[in-house]
Amino acid sequence: MRKKVLSLILIAILAMGVFAGCAKDETSKTDEPKEGGEKTSESAGKGDLKDGKYLVKLPVSDHMNYPMATMEVKDGEITSFDYNEYFAESGEAKNAENYDYEEGLEVIKNLNKQFMDKKDADSIDYDAVSGATHTKESFKEIVPALIEKAEKGEVHEPVYKDGEYEAKADKDNHGWLPEIKIVVKEGTIIGVDFKDVAVEDMEGEKVVLDEKTKEPVMEDDETPKTEPTKVKKGDIKSLENYSYLPSFDTIKELTKQIIDNDNVENLKLDGISGATNTKDTLLELATKALESAK
Fold first, then answer.
1. How far apart are CA 185 and CA 90, in angstroms?
2. Terminal-residue alpha carbon distance, the chain
3. pLDDT tens per residue across span 153-170
4. How far apart are CA 202 and CA 204, in angstroms?
């Protein structure tokens, strides 16, 4: 009987020891942070962003507008951010006065606010405001590019002084005087407005446009159908008074390239055919205008 009691006591002691060991082990496991779990602010990569101002400008679209964003970092934290979309010719940011797509403007405003509130591109709710699919896609592309620059410390270095710079040709060409205005913001070219202005009243040719598509009506020989029109002094060359289409294509392509490359050097000119005089004049005036911006 005595042996039986001693055996029971021994079993109880051993059981208590095993239980205590298990409890200690469970406590240790509970205290360990789970993989992928919430991190403290100290371990969340604070300070990964290097101080400075950063800029990303995406290529000009065929619709002659493009997105650009700037972001400033101080003490490793994002202190300012601005995303907008600009018109290539005027250099103006889209706003209620020059852009009638209200939903698009609301999306731009909402995305700017969300990013400044959350400081995290992955936390943006792109369905918070409907519409403006292209804007949302551009935002998804431009923000990570900015973050990457900030992580690498690739601070934006302004190339030019902010302002508007103009140049005019010394003389007219068949009654048209070429001129250019280049707009610089944040040290980068954001607008190129080249135009020919009539210096006198004269006869012109108007391109006939299709009523539905608003595209030029072409003849059998692939030239645009035209009709005579009157040009008044001060009029700007357009399809309403000038019929040589390659001239307008050349202006559009050079405008895109100058903004995208942020200069007038190293442009891809081989793909620009026709309108040689327009090409040479635009590049000459752009170079002249930018001399004052450096």
1. 12
2. 106
3. 999 999 999 999 999 999
4. 7
**CA–CA separation, 200 and 265 (whole Å):** 34
What pLDDT, in 10s, does the model give residues 212-261? Answer: 998 999 999 989 999 999 999 999 999 999 999 999 999 999 999 999 99
pLDDT tens digits, 15-70: 445 444 444 444 443 344 433 333 333 322 344 999 999 999 999 999 999 999 99
**CA distance linking residue 227 with residue 282, whole number of Å:** 27
The closest of 262, 57, 256, 77 to 146, measured between CA atoms, is: 57
Pair of tokens at residue 16:
């208590």
Domains of the chain from N-terminus onward = 52-152 (3.90.1010.20), 163-293 (3.90.1010.20)
CB of 79 within 8 A of CB of 72? yes
Cβ pair 115, 126 in contact under 8 A: no
C-alpha–C-alpha distance, residues 116 and 138, integer Å: 17
Task: Please state, in angstroms and rounded to a whole number, the distance separating the CA atoms of residues 261 and 256.
Answer: 9
Number of other CB atoms surrounding residue 174 within 10 Å: 8
If one counts every other C-beta atom within 10 angstroms of the C-beta of residue 73, the result is: 24
Strands (DSSP E) along 6-45, which ranges? Answer: none
pTM: 0.82
Q: Give helix 276-290 / helix 245-261 axis angle, nearest 10°.
A: 30
Considering only CA atoms, which of 216, 219, 226 is closest in space to residue 248? 216
The H-or-E segment that residue 231 falls in is strand 226-231
Quote the tokens at residue 280.
């040479």
Would you report the helix, strand and coil content of the chain in percent, each value rounded to 5? 35, 25, 40
Q: Cα(203)–Cα(197) distance, rounded to whole angstroms?
A: 14
Q: What is the DSSP letter of 48?
A: -
Q: What's the rounded Cα separation, in Å, for the pair 201 and 188?
A: 38
CA 157, distance to chain mean position in Å, is 17
